[in-house]
Every structure is written in structure tokens, then in C-alpha cells.
Amino acid sequence: MPKERADAARNRLKVLSAAARLFRERGVDGVSMDAVAAEAGVGKGTLFRRFGDKSGLAAALLDERERELQEAVLSGPPPLGPGAPAAERLSAFVGAYLDYLLDHLDLVRLSETASPGARYRIGAYRFWRLHAAILLAEIRPGCDADPLAHALLAPLAAEHMTALAGEYGEARAREAVRALVLGGVR
């Protein structure tokens, strides 16, 4: 992959910083791409060429946080990282993913629902599914781990968590999902 030009990298950081600030202040639905371009001091064409639409911008904002979580899963300390029993790692992963999801719920929802099936095409989802499948295969040897991983991740969809948190509050939604997801694996 070619190295990003310095001016393009600066513009990207300005756009991401402006978008994060505006989304925090107004919520994702209250921010237009025009507002992001104006806040960042870049042309609308630059913004649309780089990110495509608001869901592309959301995905770019989420990318860094997802990388941090992936790094913790791959090489961080146990129980999230290697070295703990698979069931403990799965529990730690569900907790860490819920933290990430609830901290960025509007952005994750936007990126997951940009088009039908968008959630399943996102690279991060494929990573989480593979991670869950590996742990499930260790917890339940001989199970059909890949579809089981999909089923395990289904309640962690942003659209689902938005509805649950809206109706029951974040704490109850978190506990309900943890109980459902982890109760079925033991």
C-alpha cells in the first residue's frame, strides 16, 4: 500500500478530529457531512472522496479503537489476551466488546447498518467471529464453531444494543447480553 501524502494525512486527522468532536457534541444523527467538512476546514469533495459517506467516516473513527481491542485480544494480558482458559477469555472478550460497543454505540450502529448485511462485511466483525470460533472450539471440542460464533455475536449487534439500552438502560442491557451470550457456552 502506498504511503499517504503528508497533506492527505493532515487532512484525514483534521476530518477525524472534527467528526469525533461534532458527533460527541451533537450525536451522529445531528451531524451532516457538510458540517464535518466545514469544521475540519476541508472541501466537501475531499471528505466524500476519502470517506464516501457518514458510515465510511464512522468506520474510520472506529478503526483505531478496534485495533486497540484486537491487539489486546492477540497479545494483551490475560484474561482478554492469551494465557487464560478459553471460557475466561471469551467472558473477558464479551465484556471488553460491550464496553467498546456502548462507548461508541451510534457510530457502530451507523457502520453496521449502512447497507443490508454491512455488519458481516466489516473486517473487524470477521476478526471477532474468528476469535470467538477459536475459543468456542476450545471450550466445546467438536462443536460447529463458526456458526456458533455468529450466533454468539448476534446479540452484540449495535442495532440490538441500541434497542435494549433504550428500553432498559445500559447496565441492564449489558447484564442481559452477558447472561445470554455466556450462559449458552458453559
From TrEMBL:
One Pfam family per UniProt: TetR_N
GO molecular function: DNA-binding transcription factor activity; transcription cis-regulatory region binding
Residue spans crossing the bilayer: none
Keyword Transcription: no
Swiss-Prot/TrEMBL keywords: DNA-binding
PROSITE patterns (UniProt xref): HTH_TETR_1 (PS01081), HTH_TETR_2 (PS50977)
Residue ranges of the annotated DNA-binding region, renumbered to this chain: 32-51
Signal peptide residue numbers: none
Location of the HTH tetR-type domain: 9-69
Keyword match Heme: no
Protein name as it appears in the record: TetR family transcriptional regulator
Organism the protein comes from: Planomonospora parontospora
